[in-house]
Amino acid sequence: MRIFNPFRPGPDRRLVAMTVALGLMLALPLQSASAQQGMSFVRDTETERMLRSYLDPILVAAGLSPQSVHLYLINDPSINAFVAEGQNIFVHTGLIMQLQTPNQVTGVLAHETGHMAGGHLIRMAEGVRAATIPMLIGMAAGIAAMALGAGQAGQALIMGSQQIGERTFLSFTRTQEASADQAGINYLDKTHQSGRGMLQTFKKFQNQEMLTYQRQDKFARSHPASQDRIDLLERLVAASPYRDERDSPEKQHEFDMVRAKLIGYIKQSDVVFRMFPASDTSKPARYARTMAYFHKPDMQAALKEINGLIADEPNSPYFQEVLGQIMVEMARPAEGVAPYKKSVQLAPDAPLLRIAYAQAMLATEDPKLVPSAAKELEIALRQEPDNDFGWYEAAEAYARMNQPAKAALATAERYYAVGNYRPAMQFAFRAQKGLSQGTVEWQRANDILATAQAQVPDDH
User: Domain limits of the chain?
Assistant: First the structure.
């Protein structure tokens, strides 16, 4: 598990910034631009795979291709998820840490899929236009009145036009939220899942509201008023033939393990030890303590906990991964190679595990392991070609193997993956000069040059 700041490989920085204006947050206020700029992304194979197992069937039910929808995990304690430009779903770690069941998380993902399938981000511009036109007309009338000497009347017109514009826009978004709720319940029905999780999550928000329902102006909200929303969801859930479906014990256990892992890694260690005291010998509690000790750091205590878990489940690729990471962090990478290798053998289609395995081999400083590290990185980068850290490690491996052209190409790929096009061009040009014309590598360098040049503004 790793936290990347400011952004993990994949999402364009401009795309993330646009979520301030376009993100459809789950019953919470939009974050400020400064908050968005400071957010960090979590990469963890175990967590990502669990979320994809919830999301992908929902996407299929919505008529969307899972391969075209990107999922990103944000390190943020709030219960939140949102969609952004294109087909991108962002999930806060707090969604997993604060909810209690897989069905609750799936309900949120179904709601967000409703936004995506409904094209709500595209229609957001329509809502802005609908709100802006009456506001501008009213402001023009107010300015004209003030120019004619009716100052108070003019100010009243301007203030009134702003309120009309705001309420027009909020009415538009309330309609979208209600539509996403109904679509989400439909997708859950299609996948034979209960909508109770979605209902429970929105009830959680209702209980946390600062103002009582009677004091709220339900029209001055970007989402339907809580009780209205709850009433609608209760009717939809009650009408579903799958309303009483429950998560399987295996699925619940998987969720409990991932939830404990995130809590252990992200929260302060004293909080973790209060939540999962030593007297709690369950696997989730031991997993949480492993991550808390690792993050503290207290590596000897972390080793004791993870070795106990491995004794119980020797074929867990994620326990093996954690053991490998502990060894690398203890400056004992040679001892981390074996568990990382086993994690890759147990989950051969997980690129993050391969990259970590290669990193451990390179960290040993053993020249005999460098070709193996390069091979693992090549496989991982075919699986996830936009992983800039993987390209960084690949450049290191090629440099140690005295292959400067391939190292330059890997560096070009690294910059290209994060949208830093000018250095991507420079390294692609450097790579081309050392590669045989017509080879796959030479052509890739040429493609990076051509694409990056189109993205870099002309300085002349």
Answer: 409-460
Which residue in 19, 204, 237, 12 sits closest to 99, CA to CA?
204
Does 39 score more than 80 pLDDT?
no
What does the pLDDT look like over 427-450, one tens digit per residue?
999 999 999 998 999 999 999 999
Q: Answer for the pair 328, 336: CB distance below 8 angstroms, yes or no.
A: yes
CA distance to 61, 84, 107, 190, 230, per residue, from 58 (Å): 5, 18, 10, 8, 22
Q: Other CB atoms closer than 10 Å to residue 248's CB: what's the count? A: 10
Higher pLDDT, 257 or 169: 257
**Cα(114)–Cα(108) distance, rounded to whole angstroms?**
10
User: What is the amino acid identity at position 403?
Assistant: Q
Q: Are 428 and 409 in contact (CB under 8 A)?
A: yes
pTM, 2 dp: 0.80
d(CA 306, CA 298): 12
Q: Give the chain's radius of gyration (CA, Å).
A: 26
How buried is residue 67: exposed, middle or buried, by Cβ count under 10 Å (0-12/13-18/19+)? exposed
pLDDT of 455 over the 90 cut = no
Task: Determine the residue type at 270.
Answer: D
What pLDDT was estimated at residue 94?
94
pLDDT of the residue at 163: 52
Q: Give backbone dihedrals phi and psi of 2, rounded to 5 degrees, phi first.
A: -140, 145
What residue type is assigned to position 395 of the chain?
A
What is the rounded CA–CA span in Å between residue 310 and residue 405?
A: 42
Q: Which residues contact 429 (CB under 8 A, 6 or more apart)?
A: 445, 449
Closest CA to 360 of 375, 339, 378, 380: 339
DSSP 211: S
Pair 355, 393: CB distance under 8 Å? yes
Sign for the pseudo-dihedral over CA of 430, 432, 433, 436: positive
Q: Which residues pair with 70 in a beta bridge?
A: 88
When pLDDT is cut at 50, 70 and 90, the band that residue 169 belongs to is very low
Question: What is the rounded distance in angstroms from the CA atom of residue 380 to the CA atom of residue 392?
Answer: 13
